[in-house]
Design a protein that fits this description.
The chain has 325 residues and is α/β, with parallel strands linked by helices. Helix content is 36%, strand content 21%. The strands form two sheets. It has a six-stranded parallel β-sheet with strand order 3-2-1-4-5-6. Strands 7-8-9-10-12-11 form a six-stranded mixed β-sheet. Helix 2 runs antiparallel to helix 4 and helix 4 packs across helix 6. The chain starts with a helix and ends with a helix.
Length: 325
Protein backbone atom coordinates (compact mmCIF):
# COMPACT_ATOMS: atom_id res chain seq x y z
CA UNK A 1 0.00 0.00 0.00
CA UNK A 2 1.45 3.34 -1.03
CA UNK A 3 2.01 6.22 1.36
CA UNK A 4 0.10 9.49 1.35
CA UNK A 5 3.08 11.26 -0.18
CA UNK A 6 3.23 8.68 -2.95
CA UNK A 7 -0.50 9.14 -3.57
CA UNK A 8 0.00 12.90 -3.82
CA UNK A 9 2.72 12.41 -6.43
CA UNK A 10 0.66 9.87 -8.36
CA UNK A 11 -2.28 12.29 -8.48
CA UNK A 12 0.02 15.13 -9.52
CA UNK A 13 1.29 12.98 -12.38
CA UNK A 14 -2.27 12.15 -13.45
CA UNK A 15 -3.17 15.84 -13.62
CA UNK A 16 -0.06 16.75 -15.58
CA UNK A 17 -0.11 13.90 -18.09
CA UNK A 18 -3.77 14.10 -19.17
CA UNK A 19 -6.23 16.76 -20.29
CA UNK A 20 -9.95 17.45 -20.81
CA UNK A 21 -11.20 16.48 -17.34
CA UNK A 22 -14.66 16.06 -15.89
CA UNK A 23 -14.70 17.15 -12.23
CA UNK A 24 -17.60 15.88 -10.07
CA UNK A 25 -18.55 15.70 -6.41
CA UNK A 26 -21.38 14.01 -4.52
CA UNK A 27 -25.11 14.62 -4.88
CA UNK A 28 -26.53 17.40 -2.68
CA UNK A 29 -23.08 18.98 -2.37
CA UNK A 30 -22.01 20.59 0.89
CA UNK A 31 -19.31 23.18 1.50
CA UNK A 32 -16.45 20.72 1.20
CA UNK A 33 -17.79 19.16 -2.01
CA UNK A 34 -18.36 22.52 -3.71
CA UNK A 35 -15.08 24.08 -2.61
CA UNK A 36 -13.13 20.93 -3.55
CA UNK A 37 -14.69 20.88 -7.01
CA UNK A 38 -13.74 24.51 -7.54
CA UNK A 39 -10.25 24.05 -6.08
CA UNK A 40 -9.57 21.33 -8.66
CA UNK A 41 -11.02 23.54 -11.38
CA UNK A 42 -8.78 26.41 -10.26
CA UNK A 43 -5.71 24.18 -10.35
CA UNK A 44 -6.54 22.82 -13.80
CA UNK A 45 -7.01 26.36 -15.10
CA UNK A 46 -3.57 27.28 -13.76
CA UNK A 47 -2.12 24.25 -15.56
CA UNK A 48 -3.76 25.27 -18.83
CA UNK A 49 -5.96 22.18 -18.89
CA UNK A 50 -9.47 21.84 -20.30
CA UNK A 51 -12.12 20.82 -17.78
CA UNK A 52 -15.84 20.74 -17.05
CA UNK A 53 -17.29 20.85 -13.53
CA UNK A 54 -20.53 18.92 -13.01
CA UNK A 55 -22.90 18.02 -10.20
CA UNK A 56 -26.27 16.33 -9.95
CA UNK A 57 -28.30 19.26 -8.68
CA UNK A 58 -27.60 22.89 -7.78
CA UNK A 59 -24.92 24.14 -5.42
CA UNK A 60 -26.11 25.92 -2.25
CA UNK A 61 -26.86 29.59 -2.90
CA UNK A 62 -24.74 30.65 0.06
CA UNK A 63 -21.67 29.38 -1.80
CA UNK A 64 -22.19 31.37 -4.98
CA UNK A 65 -19.41 33.74 -3.87
CA UNK A 66 -16.76 31.10 -4.63
CA UNK A 67 -14.48 31.34 -7.68
CA UNK A 68 -16.38 30.33 -10.85
CA UNK A 69 -19.16 28.67 -8.83
CA UNK A 70 -21.59 29.48 -11.62
CA UNK A 71 -19.57 27.24 -13.95
CA UNK A 72 -20.52 24.05 -12.11
CA UNK A 73 -23.04 22.51 -14.49
CA UNK A 74 -26.29 21.47 -12.80
CA UNK A 75 -27.24 18.12 -14.27
CA UNK A 76 -30.85 18.85 -13.36
CA UNK A 77 -30.88 21.65 -15.93
CA UNK A 78 -29.50 19.75 -18.91
CA UNK A 79 -27.11 17.09 -20.17
CA UNK A 80 -23.53 17.38 -21.35
CA UNK A 81 -22.91 16.84 -25.07
CA UNK A 82 -20.39 14.02 -24.63
CA UNK A 83 -18.58 11.63 -22.31
CA UNK A 84 -15.19 12.13 -20.69
CA UNK A 85 -12.19 9.81 -20.53
CA UNK A 86 -10.53 11.57 -17.57
CA UNK A 87 -12.62 12.07 -14.45
CA UNK A 88 -11.80 13.56 -11.05
CA UNK A 89 -14.17 12.66 -8.21
CA UNK A 90 -13.86 14.76 -5.06
CA UNK A 91 -15.43 14.10 -1.66
CA UNK A 92 -17.32 11.01 -2.89
CA UNK A 93 -17.18 8.30 -0.23
CA UNK A 94 -18.14 5.65 -2.77
CA UNK A 95 -18.68 5.58 -6.51
CA UNK A 96 -22.47 5.70 -6.27
CA UNK A 97 -22.27 9.09 -4.56
CA UNK A 98 -21.45 10.71 -7.91
CA UNK A 99 -25.07 10.06 -8.82
CA UNK A 100 -26.23 10.47 -12.40
CA UNK A 101 -23.03 12.28 -13.39
CA UNK A 102 -21.55 8.85 -14.11
CA UNK A 103 -23.60 8.83 -17.32
CA UNK A 104 -20.90 11.11 -18.71
CA UNK A 105 -17.97 8.88 -17.77
CA UNK A 106 -16.54 7.02 -20.76
CA UNK A 107 -16.65 3.25 -20.35
CA UNK A 108 -12.86 3.13 -20.05
CA UNK A 109 -12.56 6.41 -18.14
CA UNK A 110 -9.54 6.95 -15.89
CA UNK A 111 -10.87 8.12 -12.52
CA UNK A 112 -8.98 10.01 -9.83
CA UNK A 113 -10.62 9.47 -6.45
CA UNK A 114 -9.77 12.29 -3.98
CA UNK A 115 -11.52 11.90 -0.65
CA UNK A 116 -11.28 11.88 3.14
CA UNK A 117 -14.09 9.50 4.16
CA UNK A 118 -13.01 6.40 6.12
CA UNK A 119 -15.71 4.41 4.30
CA UNK A 120 -14.22 5.13 0.85
CA UNK A 121 -13.82 1.80 -0.98
CA UNK A 122 -10.83 2.89 -3.06
CA UNK A 123 -12.47 3.00 -6.50
CA UNK A 124 -10.64 4.61 -9.39
CA UNK A 125 -7.42 4.50 -11.40
CA UNK A 126 -5.75 6.96 -9.02
CA UNK A 127 -6.65 7.16 -5.33
CA UNK A 128 -5.76 10.00 -2.99
CA UNK A 129 -7.53 9.14 0.24
CA UNK A 130 -6.65 10.40 3.72
CA UNK A 131 -9.27 9.26 6.26
CA UNK A 132 -7.85 11.40 9.07
CA UNK A 133 -8.05 14.60 7.01
CA UNK A 134 -10.67 17.03 8.29
CA UNK A 135 -11.98 17.64 4.77
CA UNK A 136 -11.21 16.86 1.16
CA UNK A 137 -10.19 20.52 1.01
CA UNK A 138 -7.33 19.68 3.41
CA UNK A 139 -6.07 17.03 0.97
CA UNK A 140 -6.31 19.53 -1.88
CA UNK A 141 -4.34 22.00 0.21
CA UNK A 142 -1.54 19.40 0.26
CA UNK A 143 -1.95 18.53 -3.42
CA UNK A 144 -1.78 22.15 -4.54
CA UNK A 145 1.49 22.51 -2.65
CA UNK A 146 3.07 19.96 -5.01
CA UNK A 147 2.55 22.30 -7.98
CA UNK A 148 4.39 25.50 -8.77
CA UNK A 149 1.28 27.67 -8.87
CA UNK A 150 0.84 31.04 -7.19
CA UNK A 151 -1.92 31.01 -4.61
CA UNK A 152 -4.42 33.85 -4.65
CA UNK A 153 -7.45 34.93 -2.62
CA UNK A 154 -9.79 32.80 -4.78
CA UNK A 155 -8.14 29.46 -4.06
CA UNK A 156 -7.47 30.42 -0.45
CA UNK A 157 -11.17 31.19 0.07
CA UNK A 158 -12.22 27.92 -1.55
CA UNK A 159 -9.93 25.80 0.65
CA UNK A 160 -10.93 27.77 3.76
CA UNK A 161 -14.61 27.18 2.96
CA UNK A 162 -14.14 23.41 2.87
CA UNK A 163 -12.19 23.41 6.14
CA UNK A 164 -14.63 25.75 7.88
CA UNK A 165 -17.75 23.80 6.98
CA UNK A 166 -16.45 20.26 7.53
CA UNK A 167 -15.04 21.14 10.96
CA UNK A 168 -18.25 22.87 12.06
CA UNK A 169 -16.52 26.20 12.34
CA UNK A 170 -13.36 24.57 13.78
CA UNK A 171 -15.34 23.04 16.66
CA UNK A 172 -15.35 19.33 15.77
CA UNK A 173 -12.74 16.81 16.85
CA UNK A 174 -11.26 16.78 13.33
CA UNK A 175 -9.90 20.31 13.93
CA UNK A 176 -6.26 19.27 14.08
CA UNK A 177 -3.09 21.35 14.48
CA UNK A 178 -2.51 20.77 10.75
CA UNK A 179 -5.92 22.28 9.96
CA UNK A 180 -5.18 25.36 12.05
CA UNK A 181 -1.74 25.74 10.46
CA UNK A 182 -3.38 25.66 7.02
CA UNK A 183 -6.01 28.16 8.18
CA UNK A 184 -3.25 30.49 9.34
CA UNK A 185 -1.67 30.43 5.88
CA UNK A 186 -5.02 31.09 4.22
CA UNK A 187 -5.77 34.05 6.48
CA UNK A 188 -2.39 35.54 5.58
CA UNK A 189 -3.48 35.35 1.94
CA UNK A 190 -6.44 37.58 2.80
CA UNK A 191 -9.34 35.23 3.56
CA UNK A 192 -12.08 37.01 5.51
CA UNK A 193 -12.75 34.37 8.18
CA UNK A 194 -15.44 36.20 10.17
CA UNK A 195 -17.43 37.05 7.04
CA UNK A 196 -17.34 33.45 5.81
CA UNK A 197 -18.38 32.15 9.24
CA UNK A 198 -21.36 34.52 9.24
CA UNK A 199 -22.40 33.53 5.71
CA UNK A 200 -21.89 29.79 6.02
CA UNK A 201 -22.65 29.01 9.66
CA UNK A 202 -24.84 31.73 11.15
CA UNK A 203 -27.05 33.24 8.47
CA UNK A 204 -30.40 31.50 7.88
CA UNK A 205 -33.03 31.88 5.20
CA UNK A 206 -36.67 32.28 6.16
CA UNK A 207 -37.38 28.92 4.53
CA UNK A 208 -34.70 27.36 6.74
CA UNK A 209 -36.31 28.75 9.89
CA UNK A 210 -39.73 27.51 8.79
CA UNK A 211 -38.61 23.98 7.99
CA UNK A 212 -36.59 23.86 11.23
CA UNK A 213 -39.77 24.71 13.09
CA UNK A 214 -41.61 21.88 11.32
CA UNK A 215 -38.83 19.43 12.09
CA UNK A 216 -38.59 20.33 15.80
CA UNK A 217 -42.31 19.73 16.16
CA UNK A 218 -41.67 16.08 15.27
CA UNK A 219 -38.91 15.61 17.88
CA UNK A 220 -38.92 12.21 19.61
CA UNK A 221 -36.56 10.48 22.03
CA UNK A 222 -36.14 6.89 23.10
CA UNK A 223 -37.25 6.03 26.67
CA UNK A 224 -33.57 6.00 27.66
CA UNK A 225 -33.12 9.51 26.28
CA UNK A 226 -29.96 8.51 24.39
CA UNK A 227 -31.33 8.66 20.85
CA UNK A 228 -33.35 11.53 19.39
CA UNK A 229 -34.72 12.21 15.94
CA UNK A 230 -36.80 14.55 13.82
CA UNK A 231 -38.24 14.24 10.34
CA UNK A 232 -39.41 16.34 7.42
CA UNK A 233 -41.78 15.39 4.62
CA UNK A 234 -42.09 16.52 1.01
CA UNK A 235 -45.17 18.47 2.10
CA UNK A 236 -43.09 20.31 4.71
CA UNK A 237 -40.51 21.21 2.08
CA UNK A 238 -43.19 22.43 -0.32
CA UNK A 239 -45.12 24.50 2.21
CA UNK A 240 -41.93 26.08 3.61
CA UNK A 241 -40.57 26.72 0.11
CA UNK A 242 -37.42 24.95 1.31
CA UNK A 243 -34.54 23.46 -0.68
CA UNK A 244 -32.22 20.64 0.39
CA UNK A 245 -29.64 23.16 1.55
CA UNK A 246 -32.19 24.51 4.06
CA UNK A 247 -31.98 21.21 5.95
CA UNK A 248 -28.30 21.69 6.72
CA UNK A 249 -27.64 21.70 10.45
CA UNK A 250 -31.08 20.50 11.53
CA UNK A 251 -29.72 17.09 12.55
CA UNK A 252 -27.58 18.82 15.18
CA UNK A 253 -30.62 19.88 17.18
CA UNK A 254 -31.62 16.37 18.34
CA UNK A 255 -27.95 15.47 18.70
CA UNK A 256 -27.26 18.48 20.95
CA UNK A 257 -29.81 17.48 23.57
CA UNK A 258 -28.02 16.63 26.81
CA UNK A 259 -27.68 12.86 27.22
CA UNK A 260 -28.29 12.06 23.55
CA UNK A 261 -25.67 9.82 21.94
CA UNK A 262 -27.15 9.69 18.43
CA UNK A 263 -29.20 12.36 16.70
CA UNK A 264 -31.01 11.72 13.43
CA UNK A 265 -32.86 13.61 10.73
CA UNK A 266 -35.16 11.59 8.49
CA UNK A 267 -36.04 13.26 5.19
CA UNK A 268 -38.82 11.54 3.29
CA UNK A 269 -37.84 11.29 -0.37
CA UNK A 270 -41.07 9.64 -1.52
CA UNK A 271 -43.32 6.76 -0.49
CA UNK A 272 -40.54 4.24 -1.11
CA UNK A 273 -37.40 5.79 0.42
CA UNK A 274 -36.10 7.98 3.24
CA UNK A 275 -32.75 9.71 3.63
CA UNK A 276 -31.33 9.62 7.16
CA UNK A 277 -28.60 11.94 8.43
CA UNK A 278 -26.76 10.68 11.52
CA UNK A 279 -24.70 12.45 14.18
CA UNK A 280 -22.89 10.85 17.11
CA UNK A 281 -21.66 12.16 20.43
CA UNK A 282 -18.82 9.65 20.26
CA UNK A 283 -20.03 6.29 21.57
CA UNK A 284 -21.53 5.14 18.28
CA UNK A 285 -19.71 4.91 14.96
CA UNK A 286 -22.47 6.23 12.72
CA UNK A 287 -20.39 5.53 9.60
CA UNK A 288 -20.68 1.81 10.44
CA UNK A 289 -24.37 2.33 11.07
CA UNK A 290 -24.83 4.04 7.70
CA UNK A 291 -22.98 1.24 5.92
CA UNK A 292 -25.64 -1.22 7.09
CA UNK A 293 -28.01 0.64 4.77
CA UNK A 294 -25.52 1.16 1.96
CA UNK A 295 -24.44 4.63 3.09
CA UNK A 296 -21.25 5.96 4.63
CA UNK A 297 -19.45 8.92 6.10
CA UNK A 298 -17.47 9.59 9.24
CA UNK A 299 -17.44 8.18 12.76
CA UNK A 300 -19.51 11.08 14.07
CA UNK A 301 -21.34 12.22 10.93
CA UNK A 302 -22.81 9.97 8.26
CA UNK A 303 -25.87 9.33 6.15
CA UNK A 304 -27.73 6.73 4.15
CA UNK A 305 -30.79 6.05 2.03
CA UNK A 306 -33.24 3.65 3.66
CA UNK A 307 -35.76 1.90 1.44
CA UNK A 308 -39.35 1.94 2.66
CA UNK A 309 -41.78 4.39 4.20
CA UNK A 310 -40.94 6.71 7.09
CA UNK A 311 -42.90 4.42 9.42
CA UNK A 312 -40.73 1.50 8.32
CA UNK A 313 -37.41 3.36 8.20
CA UNK A 314 -37.42 4.82 11.71
CA UNK A 315 -37.72 1.51 13.62
CA UNK A 316 -35.20 -0.16 11.32
CA UNK A 317 -32.58 2.50 11.98
CA UNK A 318 -33.42 2.62 15.70
CA UNK A 319 -32.87 -1.13 15.93
CA UNK A 320 -29.37 -0.77 14.49
CA UNK A 321 -28.58 2.18 16.76
CA UNK A 322 -29.69 0.19 19.81
CA UNK A 323 -27.51 -2.73 18.71
CA UNK A 324 -24.46 -0.48 18.45
CA UNK A 325 -25.19 1.24 21.77
Amino acid sequence: MQSYEQSLQQTRKFLLEHDDYLVVSHVQPDGDAVSSTLAVGWLLSCLGKKYTMLNEGPIPKRMEYLWHADEIVNLGEGDLPRKYSNVICVDCADFQRVGLTQRFFAQDALIANIDHHPTNNGYGFVTLIKPDAAATAEILFDLLKTFEVEWDIDIATAIYTGLLTDTGGFRYTNTSPKVMAAVSELLVLGVNGPELAETLLEEMTLAQVKVLNRALNTLQLTPQGDVAWVYVTPQDMLECNAANEDLEGIVNYPRNIRGVEVGMLFKVIDETAVKVSLRSAGKVDVAALAQVFGGGGHTRAAGARVEGTLEQAIPRVLEEVRRLL
